[in-house]
Amino acid sequence: MTQPTLHLGQTLRFEGDPFADGLDAAKHETRGAILVEDGIIHAVGPAADLRAAYPWAPTVDHGDGLIVAGFVDAHAHYPQTGIIASWGKRLIDWLNSYTFPEEMRFGDADYAAEIAERYLDFLLTNGTTSVCSFCTIHPESVDALFTAARARGMRIAAGKTCMDRNAPDGLRDTPKSAYDDSARLLNKWHGKARASYVITPRFSPTSTPEQLEALGALWTEHPDCLMQTHLSEQTDEIAWVKSLYPQARDYLDTYEAFGLLGERGLYGHAIHLEDREKAKLLEHGAALVHCPTSNTFIGSGLFDMGGLKSDGQIVGLATDTGGGSSFSMLRSMAAAYEIGQLRGTPLHAAQLIWLATSGSARALHQHNRIGNLGAGMEADFVVLDLASTPAIAQRSTRAQDIWEALFPTIMMGDDRAIASTYVAGKQMKPAAP
Ligand code: GUN
Ligand code: ZN
């Protein structure tokens, strides 16, 4: 047992989804507090009330800092850390030119460990406390990420990426080895400490129907696991999928036909959806993941956040590192705002911060544990400095309300805006002395 600690500052939490429930779903305290003990938040409220209720608790005063839940990145590729911001290609050429050669290196456990540690440290610097990541086809790459996450106490979801065609020699498995390796890794990591295993076919073009079928069977055997993949990111990719799966009604059908459409499914990108696909995703309660910096960087298209959310789709937000051009969920919120503007549906600051926390946690079925401040939630939180640079400060000091104060940090903030990051109540940034 550790001693309870009261963290004081501005606080922002959600009692609902601001897309569906409006701005009243957001609860802001100018002088708030959270009580943290043994990695769990035990109480949230006005600072004066909590100080009166827990007069013996030591305090950490974050001043004007805004305490919010740690960011949850719902789709990333940690092995692409070293090739982020590679110039000039669209999806398929980008995969072949930059991604596959780099992913080839992750059979080396030492290299995988080095990148996994570097990647998770970048996340903590940027205020991201949980991620759902693809690994590579190598089991070593999965062990490396879960091991590095365990050392940092982070709640992480990840899985071995499966590919048995249209990938170079050295980067292909088979239907059987994909099933066997995934099953072994699942049994080794799923539900251990804060790890969740995610069944991970990369996307239909790099799997044979036999491999998709094997992974669908694995998911049926482990229905509590998430399944992650890619869907309808670029138009040439969709045409390729149609040529590889001539019987399929559409891209989603290539997953649906093999038991890979379900409530715990996460479908990254989902930009160019047909009506049947939207209806099926909704019917199954599957989650779409918006990857805005990736969609602009690789030139994929403009995700229809306004339309999909008003239909009631479940949507998370993600960096998609390294197709995405940043490790930062602040940058991802800014890009989501810009894409919303281009579609004529600007997102409110409350919606953006909700997407990066509770929305992504909901997509990952972890919203009862992470992504919000509340009694019983795990104590993964960040403290935002809403005046982290002179340019941001001169704008936020004019703010009339919390949203005007927060929005400049969303649009212009970077890791300097993350004053502190806490994982399970433990301070990870600045690094503990
Ligand atoms: N589609 C299949 N693999 C990938 C990947 O690694 N990144 C992105 N952005 N799209 C993909
Ligand atoms: Zn991806």
UniProtKB/TrEMBL annotation:
<comment type="pathway">
    <text>Purine metabolism; guanine degradation; xanthine from guanine: step 1/1.</text>
</comment>
<dbReference type="InterPro" id="IPR014311">
    <property type="entry name" value="Guanine_deaminase"/>
</dbReference>
<comment type="similarity">
    <text>Belongs to the metallo-dependent hydrolases superfamily. ATZ/TRZ family.</text>
</comment>
<dbReference type="GO" id="GO:0006147">
    <property type="term" value="P:guanine catabolic process"/>
</dbReference>
<dbReference type="GO" id="GO:0005829">
    <property type="term" value="C:cytosol"/>
</dbReference>
<dbReference type="InterPro" id="IPR011059">
    <property type="entry name" value="Metal-dep_hydrolase_composite"/>
</dbReference>
<feature type="domain" description="Aminodeoxyfutalosine deaminase/Imidazolonepropionase-like composite">
    <location>
        <begin position="32"/>
        <end position="55"/>
    </location>
</feature>
<dbReference type="InterPro" id="IPR006680">
    <property type="entry name" value="Amidohydro-rel"/>
</dbReference>
<dbReference type="InterPro" id="IPR051607">
    <property type="entry name" value="Metallo-dep_hydrolases"/>
</dbReference>
<dbReference type="InterPro" id="IPR054418">
    <property type="entry name" value="MQNX/HUTI_composite_N"/>
</dbReference>
<dbReference type="GO" id="GO:0008270">
    <property type="term" value="F:zinc ion binding"/>
</dbReference>
<comment type="function">
    <text>Catalyzes the hydrolytic deamination of guanine, producing xanthine and ammonia.</text>
</comment>
<dbReference type="GO" id="GO:0008892">
    <property type="term" value="F:guanine deaminase activity"/>
</dbReference>
<keyword id="KW-0479">Metal-binding</keyword>
<dbReference type="InterPro" id="IPR032466">
    <property type="entry name" value="Metal_Hydrolase"/>
</dbReference>
<dbReference type="Pfam" id="PF22039">
    <property type="entry name" value="HUTI_composite_bact"/>
</dbReference>
<protein>
    <recommendedName>
        <fullName>Guanine deaminase</fullName>
        <ecNumber>3.5.4.3</ecNumber>
    </recommendedName>
</protein>
<keyword id="KW-0862">Zinc</keyword>
<dbReference type="Pfam" id="PF01979">
    <property type="entry name" value="Amidohydro_1"/>
</dbReference>
<keyword id="KW-0378">Hydrolase</keyword>
<feature type="domain" description="Amidohydrolase-related">
    <location>
        <begin position="67"/>
        <end position="427"/>
    </location>
</feature>
